[in-house]
C-alpha cells in the first residue's frame, strides 16, 4: 500500500473551483488510486488544499503521478493552482488501511523530520503506544516518506479544536503520549496544519 499527499496552493478566492476540479480529476476513467481525503487549510499556511490518495503499489502511484506531471491542467484546476507539491508515503506497517469514514470536523496533519535511521525506531515506538492512544481519539494514518528528507506524517481527526486540546492534554497526563523513545529520533523540525474537510472528502 502506498499513499500520496498532494498539496495544492491555490490562488486567492479559487478554492471552490479547485475542489470541483479535483473531484472530476480523480473520477476520470484514466485515474488511478482512490481518493481518501480532501481538506482545506484553516490554521497554518493558508490557501492550501491537501489531497490524500491511496494506491495499491508503487507502479500505480507513479503512473498517476506521471498523469499529473504531463498535463497543463493537473487536478482539473491548473490555472488556479499557484504551487503543486507531491509527497509519497508508506504506511506504518501495523496500521490498518485508510478507509472513508466520518471521524471529525477538524483534522490535524503533522509532519516531523527524523534523524538518520529514525524510521524503524519510530515505527516501533508508535506500534507500542498507538493502541492506548487511539482509545482517546482515532488516528487516520501514520506514514513515512519515500522521497525527500527523512520524515513522517500523521493525520488525526477531532470533533473540534477544544476536543483536540483536551485529548492531547489527557494523553500526556496519562503518560500515553508521546510514544516512549519516539522523540529521541526527531530533529525538532515539525510542521502542523489544521484543516477542514471539503465537500468531496471521503474522510469527514
Automatic annotation (TrEMBL):
InterPro entries: Dimeric_a/b-barrel, NIPSNAP, NipSnap_domain. Belongs to the NipSnap family. It comes from Bosea psychrotolerans. It comes from the Bacteria. Pfam families: NIPSNAP. Residues 3-95, 107-202 form the NIPSNAP domain. This is NIPSNAP protein.
Amino acid at each position: 500500500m502506498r499513499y500520496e499527499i498532494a498539496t495544492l496552493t491555490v490562488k486567492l478566492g479559487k478554492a471552490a473551483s479547485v475542489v470541483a476540479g479535483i473531484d472530476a480529476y480523480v473520477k476520470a476513467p484514466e485515474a488511478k488510486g482512490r481518493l481518501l481525503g480532501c481538506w482545506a487549510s484553516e490554521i497554518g499556511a493558508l490557501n492550501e488544499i491537501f489531497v490524500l490518495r491511496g494506491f495499491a503499489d508503487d507502479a500505480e502511484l507513479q503512473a498517476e503521478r506521471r498523469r499529473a506531471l504531463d498535463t497543463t491542467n493537473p487536478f482539473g484546476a491548473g490555472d488556479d493552482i499557484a504551487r503543486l507539491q507531491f509527497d509519497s508515503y508508506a504506511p506504518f506497517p501495523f496500521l490498518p488501511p485508510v478507509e472513508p469514514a466520518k471521524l471529525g470536523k477538524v483534522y490535524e496533519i503533522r509532519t516531523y523530520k527524523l534523524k538518520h535511521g529514525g524510521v524503524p525506531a519510530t515505527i516501533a515506538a508508535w506500534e507500542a503506544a498507538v493502541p492506548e492512544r487511539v482509545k482517546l481519539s482515532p488516528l487516520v494514518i501514520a506514514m513515512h516518506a519515500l522521497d525527500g528528507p527523512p520524515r513522517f506524517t500523521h493525520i488525526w481527526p477531532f470533533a473540534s479544536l477544544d476536543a483536540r486540546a483536551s485529548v492531547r492534554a489527557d494523553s500526556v497526563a496519562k503518560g500515553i503520549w508521546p510514544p516512549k523513545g519516539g522523540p529521541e529520533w526527531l530533529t525538532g523540525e515539525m510542521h502542523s496544519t489544521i484543516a477542514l474537510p471539503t465537500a468531496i472528502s471521503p474522510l469527514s
